Amino acid sequence: MDARWITVTPGADGGISLCMMLRPKRVVFFPPTYYFYYTLSKIHELEIYDPSLVDDLKIPDVDLNEGDMVFIPNPNNPTGHHFEMEEILRILKSPATVVVDEAYFEFSWVTTVNLLRNFPNLIILRTFSKAFAFAGQRFGYVISRPENIEKLDEKRNPYNLSSFVMELALEVLKNREIFLGRIKEIEMERRRMFEELEGMGLKPFPSQTNFLYFKVQSADEVVRTLRDRGVFVRSFWGGIRVSIGKREENEYFLKVLKEVLKI
Ligand SMILES: Cc1ncc(COP(=O)(O)O)c(C=O)c1O
After folding, report:
1. Is the CB–ligand 1 distance for residue 101 below 6 Å?
2. How far is the CA of 129 from the centre of ligand 1 (A)?
Protein backbone atom coordinates (compact mmCIF):
# COMPACT_ATOMS: atom_id res chain seq x y z
CA MET A 1 0.00 0.00 0.00
CA ASP A 2 1.00 3.60 -0.52
CA ALA A 3 2.71 4.93 2.65
CA ARG A 4 0.08 7.69 2.94
CA TRP A 5 -2.41 4.97 3.96
CA ILE A 6 -0.29 3.77 6.89
CA THR A 7 1.04 5.04 10.19
CA VAL A 8 3.06 3.17 12.81
CA THR A 9 2.37 2.67 16.51
CA PRO A 10 3.86 0.88 19.53
CA GLY A 11 1.86 -2.32 19.06
CA ALA A 12 -1.84 -2.51 18.29
CA ASP A 13 -2.50 -1.06 21.75
CA GLY A 14 -0.67 2.03 20.53
CA GLY A 15 -3.11 2.05 17.57
CA ILE A 16 -6.14 1.73 19.87
CA SER A 17 -4.86 4.57 22.04
CA LEU A 18 -4.15 6.74 19.00
CA CYS A 19 -7.71 6.21 17.68
CA MET A 20 -9.07 7.13 21.10
CA MET A 21 -7.09 10.36 20.95
CA LEU A 22 -9.51 11.47 18.21
CA ARG A 23 -11.85 11.85 21.21
CA PRO A 24 -14.98 10.00 20.06
CA LYS A 25 -18.16 10.92 21.97
CA ARG A 26 -18.59 7.26 22.87
CA VAL A 27 -16.62 4.06 22.38
CA VAL A 28 -18.55 0.90 21.57
CA PHE A 29 -17.45 -2.73 21.87
CA PHE A 30 -19.10 -6.09 22.31
CA PRO A 31 -18.00 -8.37 25.14
CA PRO A 32 -16.58 -10.92 25.41
CA THR A 33 -13.95 -8.75 23.75
CA TYR A 34 -10.36 -7.56 24.17
CA TYR A 35 -10.35 -6.32 27.78
CA PHE A 36 -7.82 -3.57 27.04
CA TYR A 37 -10.52 -1.60 25.21
CA TYR A 38 -11.94 -0.99 28.69
CA THR A 39 -8.57 -0.11 30.20
CA LEU A 40 -7.66 2.36 27.46
CA SER A 41 -11.14 3.93 27.34
CA LYS A 42 -10.81 4.63 31.05
CA ILE A 43 -7.34 6.10 30.63
CA HIS A 44 -8.72 8.37 27.88
CA GLU A 45 -11.81 9.10 30.02
CA LEU A 46 -14.26 8.07 27.29
CA GLU A 47 -17.86 7.02 27.65
CA ILE A 48 -18.30 3.28 27.08
CA TYR A 49 -21.28 1.48 25.49
CA ASP A 50 -20.74 -2.30 25.65
CA PRO A 51 -23.70 -4.47 24.64
CA SER A 52 -22.78 -8.17 24.58
CA LEU A 53 -22.43 -10.39 21.54
CA VAL A 54 -25.66 -12.30 20.88
CA ASP A 55 -26.80 -15.70 19.53
CA ASP A 56 -23.65 -17.62 18.96
CA LEU A 57 -21.29 -14.66 19.29
CA LYS A 58 -22.81 -12.39 16.65
CA ILE A 59 -22.52 -8.59 16.73
CA PRO A 60 -25.77 -7.22 18.20
CA ASP A 61 -28.06 -4.82 16.36
CA VAL A 62 -27.25 -1.45 17.89
CA ASP A 63 -28.10 2.18 17.21
CA LEU A 64 -24.92 4.00 16.31
CA ASN A 65 -24.46 7.72 15.86
CA GLU A 66 -21.91 10.09 14.45
CA GLY A 67 -19.23 10.51 17.09
CA ASP A 68 -19.31 6.83 18.07
CA MET A 69 -16.16 4.74 17.63
CA VAL A 70 -16.74 0.99 17.42
CA PHE A 71 -13.92 -1.48 18.14
CA ILE A 72 -14.22 -4.91 16.50
CA PRO A 73 -11.35 -7.34 17.06
CA ASN A 74 -11.39 -9.68 14.08
CA PRO A 75 -10.63 -12.48 14.93
CA ASN A 76 -12.02 -11.81 18.36
CA ASN A 77 -10.11 -12.08 21.64
CA PRO A 78 -10.77 -14.08 23.86
CA THR A 79 -13.11 -16.32 21.83
CA GLY A 80 -10.77 -16.69 18.82
CA HIS A 81 -13.60 -16.70 16.27
CA HIS A 82 -13.91 -14.27 13.38
CA PHE A 83 -17.02 -12.32 12.51
CA GLU A 84 -18.86 -12.67 9.22
CA MET A 85 -18.20 -9.87 6.74
CA GLU A 86 -21.95 -9.01 6.71
CA GLU A 87 -21.82 -8.29 10.44
CA ILE A 88 -18.92 -5.89 9.99
CA LEU A 89 -20.54 -4.32 6.91
CA ARG A 90 -23.69 -3.63 8.92
CA ILE A 91 -21.62 -1.61 11.41
CA LEU A 92 -19.63 0.09 8.65
CA LYS A 93 -22.84 1.34 7.06
CA SER A 94 -23.62 3.30 10.25
CA PRO A 95 -22.38 6.87 10.85
CA ALA A 96 -19.80 5.59 13.40
CA THR A 97 -16.04 5.32 12.97
CA VAL A 98 -15.22 1.60 12.88
CA VAL A 99 -11.86 0.31 14.09
CA VAL A 100 -11.29 -3.26 12.97
CA ASP A 101 -8.49 -4.67 15.09
CA GLU A 102 -6.74 -7.28 12.96
CA ALA A 103 -4.12 -8.23 15.58
CA TYR A 104 -4.51 -11.91 14.62
CA PHE A 105 -4.79 -11.34 10.86
CA GLU A 106 -1.90 -13.67 9.98
CA PHE A 107 -3.78 -16.57 11.60
CA SER A 108 -7.11 -15.96 9.86
CA TRP A 109 -6.18 -14.16 6.61
CA VAL A 110 -9.57 -12.46 6.82
CA THR A 111 -9.25 -8.72 6.30
CA THR A 112 -11.32 -5.60 5.67
CA VAL A 113 -8.51 -3.88 3.71
CA ASN A 114 -10.48 -4.17 0.46
CA LEU A 115 -13.35 -2.23 2.09
CA LEU A 116 -11.21 0.89 2.62
CA ARG A 117 -12.09 2.11 -0.85
CA ASN A 118 -15.82 2.26 -0.06
CA PHE A 119 -15.77 3.09 3.64
CA PRO A 120 -14.03 6.31 4.71
CA ASN A 121 -15.09 5.52 8.31
CA LEU A 122 -12.89 2.38 8.47
CA ILE A 123 -9.62 2.18 10.42
CA ILE A 124 -7.65 -1.09 10.53
CA LEU A 125 -5.11 -2.04 13.20
CA ARG A 126 -2.32 -4.57 12.82
CA THR A 127 0.59 -5.69 14.99
CA PHE A 128 3.82 -7.67 14.89
CA SER A 129 3.10 -8.92 18.44
CA LYS A 130 1.29 -12.13 17.53
CA ALA A 131 2.38 -13.92 14.35
CA PHE A 132 5.82 -12.29 14.49
CA ALA A 133 6.43 -12.89 18.23
CA PHE A 134 7.45 -9.23 18.61
CA ALA A 135 5.25 -8.19 21.55
CA GLY A 136 8.05 -6.93 23.80
CA GLN A 137 9.45 -4.65 21.08
CA ARG A 138 6.07 -2.90 20.54
CA PHE A 139 5.46 -2.47 16.83
CA GLY A 140 2.12 -2.11 15.10
CA TYR A 141 0.59 -0.19 12.25
CA VAL A 142 -2.68 1.47 11.26
CA ILE A 143 -4.18 1.31 7.77
CA SER A 144 -6.81 3.81 6.69
CA ARG A 145 -7.54 6.40 4.04
CA PRO A 146 -4.92 9.18 3.85
CA GLU A 147 -7.30 11.80 5.32
CA ASN A 148 -7.76 9.61 8.43
CA ILE A 149 -4.04 8.83 8.68
CA GLU A 150 -3.34 12.58 8.57
CA LYS A 151 -5.73 13.14 11.48
CA LEU A 152 -4.12 10.33 13.46
CA ASP A 153 -0.62 11.60 12.68
CA GLU A 154 -1.58 15.00 14.12
CA LYS A 155 -2.20 13.24 17.47
CA ARG A 156 0.75 10.84 17.24
CA ASN A 157 3.98 11.48 19.07
CA PRO A 158 6.41 11.59 16.10
CA TYR A 159 9.01 9.71 18.20
CA ASN A 160 6.64 6.94 19.28
CA LEU A 161 9.02 4.21 18.05
CA SER A 162 12.73 3.89 18.72
CA SER A 163 15.13 3.58 15.77
CA PHE A 164 16.21 0.23 17.24
CA VAL A 165 12.64 -1.15 17.06
CA MET A 166 12.21 0.20 13.52
CA GLU A 167 15.40 -1.55 12.39
CA LEU A 168 14.27 -4.80 14.03
CA ALA A 169 10.81 -4.51 12.46
CA LEU A 170 12.45 -4.23 9.03
CA GLU A 171 14.43 -7.40 9.77
CA VAL A 172 11.18 -9.16 10.72
CA LEU A 173 9.66 -8.08 7.41
CA LYS A 174 12.68 -9.36 5.48
CA ASN A 175 12.32 -12.71 7.26
CA ARG A 176 8.55 -12.87 7.33
CA GLU A 177 8.45 -16.28 5.62
CA ILE A 178 10.21 -17.87 8.62
CA PHE A 179 7.56 -16.51 10.99
CA LEU A 180 4.64 -17.27 8.74
CA GLY A 181 5.95 -20.82 8.32
CA ARG A 182 5.57 -21.34 12.07
CA ILE A 183 1.87 -20.55 11.89
CA LYS A 184 1.25 -23.94 10.26
CA GLU A 185 2.81 -25.62 13.31
CA ILE A 186 0.68 -23.53 15.67
CA GLU A 187 -2.44 -24.45 13.68
CA MET A 188 -1.61 -28.16 13.89
CA GLU A 189 -1.08 -27.97 17.64
CA ARG A 190 -4.27 -25.91 18.02
CA ARG A 191 -6.24 -28.59 16.19
CA ARG A 192 -4.76 -31.28 18.43
CA MET A 193 -5.43 -29.28 21.62
CA PHE A 194 -8.98 -28.57 20.44
CA GLU A 195 -9.65 -32.30 20.06
CA GLU A 196 -8.01 -33.11 23.40
CA LEU A 197 -10.16 -30.51 25.19
CA GLU A 198 -13.28 -31.83 23.48
CA GLY A 199 -12.23 -35.31 24.58
CA MET A 200 -12.22 -34.00 28.14
CA GLY A 201 -15.87 -32.99 27.74
CA LEU A 202 -15.03 -29.28 27.39
CA LYS A 203 -16.32 -27.07 24.58
CA PRO A 204 -13.51 -24.98 23.12
CA PHE A 205 -14.63 -22.30 20.66
CA PRO A 206 -13.41 -22.78 17.06
CA SER A 207 -10.39 -20.49 16.82
CA GLN A 208 -8.63 -18.58 14.03
CA THR A 209 -5.89 -17.37 16.38
CA ASN A 210 -2.96 -18.68 18.41
CA PHE A 211 -5.13 -19.44 21.45
CA LEU A 212 -8.18 -21.46 22.50
CA TYR A 213 -11.01 -20.40 24.79
CA PHE A 214 -13.38 -22.60 26.75
CA LYS A 215 -15.82 -22.12 29.61
CA VAL A 216 -15.32 -23.84 32.97
CA GLN A 217 -16.95 -23.57 36.38
CA SER A 218 -15.03 -21.22 38.71
CA ALA A 219 -12.60 -20.13 35.98
CA ASP A 220 -10.69 -17.74 38.29
CA GLU A 221 -10.05 -20.47 40.80
CA VAL A 222 -8.93 -22.94 38.12
CA VAL A 223 -6.52 -20.31 36.78
CA ARG A 224 -5.07 -19.78 40.27
CA THR A 225 -4.58 -23.51 40.80
CA LEU A 226 -2.96 -23.87 37.37
CA ARG A 227 -0.62 -21.00 38.24
CA ASP A 228 0.51 -22.83 41.38
CA ARG A 229 1.46 -25.71 39.09
CA GLY A 230 3.47 -23.44 36.78
CA VAL A 231 0.84 -22.99 34.04
CA PHE A 232 0.03 -19.37 33.21
CA VAL A 233 -3.30 -18.85 31.48
CA ARG A 234 -5.92 -16.09 31.75
CA SER A 235 -9.58 -16.15 32.72
CA PHE A 236 -12.06 -13.88 30.95
CA TRP A 237 -15.84 -13.78 31.09
CA GLY A 238 -16.10 -17.11 32.91
CA GLY A 239 -13.76 -18.96 30.57
CA ILE A 240 -10.08 -19.79 30.18
CA ARG A 241 -7.91 -18.59 27.32
CA VAL A 242 -4.83 -20.66 26.68
CA SER A 243 -2.12 -19.75 24.17
CA ILE A 244 -0.86 -22.51 21.92
CA GLY A 245 2.70 -23.21 23.00
CA LYS A 246 5.31 -25.80 22.11
CA ARG A 247 4.10 -29.37 22.02
CA GLU A 248 5.59 -30.26 25.43
CA GLU A 249 4.09 -27.12 27.01
CA ASN A 250 0.67 -27.99 25.60
CA GLU A 251 1.01 -31.55 26.88
CA TYR A 252 1.87 -30.28 30.34
CA PHE A 253 -1.10 -27.88 30.30
CA LEU A 254 -3.52 -30.67 29.34
CA LYS A 255 -2.12 -33.01 31.99
CA VAL A 256 -2.38 -30.41 34.77
CA LEU A 257 -5.82 -29.24 33.61
CA LYS A 258 -7.12 -32.83 33.78
CA GLU A 259 -5.83 -33.11 37.32
CA VAL A 260 -7.24 -29.74 38.41
CA LEU A 261 -10.67 -30.42 36.91
CA LYS A 262 -10.52 -34.01 38.21
CA ILE A 263 -11.33 -35.47 34.78
C1 LIG B 1 -7.45 -8.05 19.78
C2 LIG B 1 -6.15 -7.51 20.27
N3 LIG B 1 -5.80 -6.27 19.91
C4 LIG B 1 -4.65 -5.74 20.33
C5 LIG B 1 -3.79 -6.44 21.14
C6 LIG B 1 -2.54 -5.76 21.61
O7 LIG B 1 -1.44 -6.18 20.91
P8 LIG B 1 -0.07 -5.37 20.97
O9 LIG B 1 0.89 -6.20 21.74
O10 LIG B 1 0.32 -5.23 19.54
O11 LIG B 1 -0.32 -4.05 21.61
C12 LIG B 1 -4.12 -7.71 21.56
C13 LIG B 1 -3.23 -8.46 22.47
O14 LIG B 1 -3.60 -9.37 23.17
C15 LIG B 1 -5.33 -8.26 21.11
O16 LIG B 1 -5.71 -9.49 21.49
Report:
1. yes
2. 7
* Residue 262 CA to ligand 1 centre (angstroms): 33
Å from CA of 232 to ligand 1 middle: 18
What's the rounded Cα separation, in Å, for the pair 1 and 16? 21
Q: Check pLDDT > 90 for residue 123.
A: yes
> What domains sit in the chain, N to C, each tagged with a CATH number?
3-174 (3.40.640.10), 182-261 (3.90.1150.10)
| Per-residue pLDDT tens over the stretch 88-115 | 999 999 999 999 999 999 999 999 999 9
* Site to substitute for ligand 1 among 19, 39, 129, 233, most atoms within 8 A of C-beta: 129
Give yes or no for residue 1 having a pLDDT over 90.
no
Is any ligand 1 atom within 6 A of the Cβ of residue 103?
yes
